[in-house]
Design goal:
Blueprint lengths: L2 H5 L2 E10 L2 E11 L4 E6 L5 H8 L7 E6 L2 E3 L4 H6 L2 E4 L11 H6 L13 H14 L15 H13 L5 E5 L7 H16 L3 E5 L3 H7 L2 E6 L2 E7 L5 H9 L17 E9 L7 E6 L3 E5 L6 H8 L7 E6 L2 E3 L4 H6 L2 E4 L14 H15 L5 H14 L16 H13 L5 E5 L7 H16 L3 E5 L3 H7 L2 E6 L2 E7 L5 H9 L6
Parallel strand pairs: 3-8, 3-9, 6-7, 7-8, 13-18, 13-19, 16-17, 17-18
Antiparallel strand pairs: 1-2, 1-4, 4-5, 9-10, 11-12, 11-14, 14-15, 19-20
Bound molecules: adenosine-5'-triphosphate.
Length: 503
């Protein structure tokens, strides 16, 4: 055994995992060290989540060894992994409103006294200690229902740490957080490091990897293709390892002739979420919507798509008044919306990729009285291919795809309906850096063919790279608008935060 592995908090050696038709992990090794953050990077489908599931006892490896302090261990169940101090902080940890903070932290593994009864005094003391250790000022005796979102998140973290963790796994922990919460999470990571925990951090965001990781490990197609210290590498080198080739053009926007207005929105208002939204979108245009989390962008898009009802407002499509009272009316008028949360609602997990992609398009053609099966299938093949979908075959159930590849299926499915207007909410969230440029290139090409795109994004480089024009929202209102030639990161940030004079 290499010397370094002796110091590792946990080491995986020669791990292999195969699913029918897919070798998800092939002889991979990885060591995590106390007090250090190791970033695990790789394209969608590279095998990151599979490794996490092996480390947390959800999947069993087909071969290979896991050792702690040099001694072999096995995790036949999730409980076994947590008994060995391996824990994962999930966004979707289930918490119970009616229970107290301390009960939520220790539910399922409460300390007991020598009579086998739950030791309440001990529970409160330990809950207090854990909450203190992560800097959460929450009373363990309060009911969960009394807490706000940020504090609930802290309770979920405390719950993960209550198993006396030696290894903490964070799988894309900042994907759904606001900037302020992200900063708090980074502070928490620093505390965990100082506490000697070994942290495995999975992220598609390179800025955060370079900010908080000490080491990196790169997976490509189920193999470990590189590892080392963050201080001794740079972004280009990591991307090249991940993708297997240099990636230069991250935002390959084409110049597209912009046509006449396709969609004109005026006076859109909602009692609580947004007010007086008005703009028009032209043929071939990519219109960015920038703002902080909570600025009302998604809420407005949901109203425009007929998911919620505005209290006032009018829409014109191709200069005709349009009434949109439901998503199906929106689709009929040629408007589709790809929401940010695509995972659970966007696809039917047990259905093959093919059918998922053609589902809404088939409904459309059969309404017209005929089904152009072959045409729809070739469209599905083209669209999934153009979005860089990684799947063994299009007959595979969507539920077996990696998270990022499921996202691509949802985008392909709505693009394949060939709408006039597509609203993409955070189109590249969860999508790896190499595929990201494929998604962007395809968006740009479709705009060139006359599609009009509204792109809600919180990523400034994506907005700057892809938009012909950007609208900035803050507190439910449009506060600024910039054409491509006048956009800058500073102007966007200032307008979104309400600092200085808005344009
Ligand atoms: N339960 C399963 N059945 C069949 N194949 C699976 C299953 N789980 C994962 N796979 C396959 O294993 C491979 C690795 O997937 P994994 O989810 O580990 O990727 P990932 O690196 O986490 O991707 P992402 O960045 O998109 O989250 C993929 O080809 C995926 O389709």
């Amino acid at each position: 055994m290499p010397d370094a592995q002796q110091h590792a908090a946990i080491a995986l050696d020669g791990i292999t995992k195969t699913f029918p038709g897919v070798r998800a992990l092939s002889d991979v090794s990885l060591a995590l060290y106390p007090g250090e953050v190791t970033a695990l990077v790789g394209e969608n489908g590279a095998g990151k989540s599979t490794l996490v599931k092996i480390l947390t006892g959800i999947y069993q490896p087909d071969g290979g060894e896991i050792t702690i302090g040099g001694a072999p261990v096995s995790f036949p169940t999730a409980e076994a992994a947590s008994e060995h101090g391996v824990t994962a902080i999930h966004q979707e940890t289930v918490l119970f409103d009616a229970l107290t903070v301390a009960e939520n932290i220790f539910i399922g593994h409460a300390p007991t006294n020598r009579f086998g009864l739950i030791d309440w005094k001990e529970i409160h003391v330990r809950a207090r200690d854990i909450l203190d250790s992560i800097g959460a000022r929450i009373d363990p005796r309060h009911r969960l229902s009394e807490l706000g979102i940020a504090n609930r998140h802290m309770v979920a973290v405390a719950r993960a740490l209550s198993v006396d963790a030696r290894v903490v796994i964070m799988d894309e922990p900042t994907a759904a957080l606001s900037q302020k919460e992200i900063e708090e999470l980074y502070e928490l990571v620093e505390k965990l490091k100082a506490d000697g925990k070994a942290i495995l951090f999975i992220s598609h965001k390179f800025d955060e990897i370079f900010r908080i990781a000490d080491r990196y490990t790169v997976f490509r197609d189920g193999e470990m293709v590189g590892e080392g210290k963050i201080a001794e590498t740079d972004e280009n080198a990591l991307v090249e390892l991940m993708v297997g080739r240099p990636v230069d053009q991250v935002f390959p926007k084409q110049e597209v002739a912009i046509g006449e207005p396709v969609l004109t929105v005026s006076g859109y208002r909602h009692p609580t979420e947004f007010e007086d939204i008005g703009f028009s979108l032209r043929r071939g245009e990519i219109l960015g919507f920038y703002g902080l989390v909570g600025a009302g962008r998604s809420e407005f898009m949901q109203a425009l798509f007929g998911i919620t009802r505005p209290s006032a407002g009018a829409v014109r499509i191709d200069d005709e008044i349009a009434v949109i009272r439901s998503p199906s009316e929106a689709v009929k008028q040629g408007i589709v919306y790809v929401p940010e949360e695509r995972g659970t609602q966007g696809t039917i997990a047990a259905m093959p990729i093919f059918e998922n992609v053609t589902l809404p398009s088939l409904a459309k053609v059969s309404r017209r009285g005929f089904v152009r099966m072959a045409e729809e299938f070739s469209l599905a093949r083209e669209y999934t291919g153009r979005l860089d979908l990684r799947a063994a075959s299009l007959d595979q159930p969507v539920g077996n795809l990696s998270g990022g590849n499921q996202q691509k299926v949802v985008i392909a499915k709505w693009l394949a309906t060939q709408p006039k207007v597509i609203i993409l909410d955070e189109p590249t969230k969860g999508i790896d850096i190499g595929s990201k440029s494929a998604v962007h290139a395809f968006m740009s090409e479709l705009a060139g063919r006359g599609l009009s795109i509204i792109m809600v994004s919180s990523e400034i480089p994506e907005i700057l790279g892809m938009s012909d024009r950007v609208i900035v929202m803050r507190e439910g209102r449009i506060v600024a608008e910039f054409p491509r030639e006048h956009m800058s990161a500073e102007k966007l940030v200032r307008a979104a935060a309400g600092i200085g004079a808005a344009a």
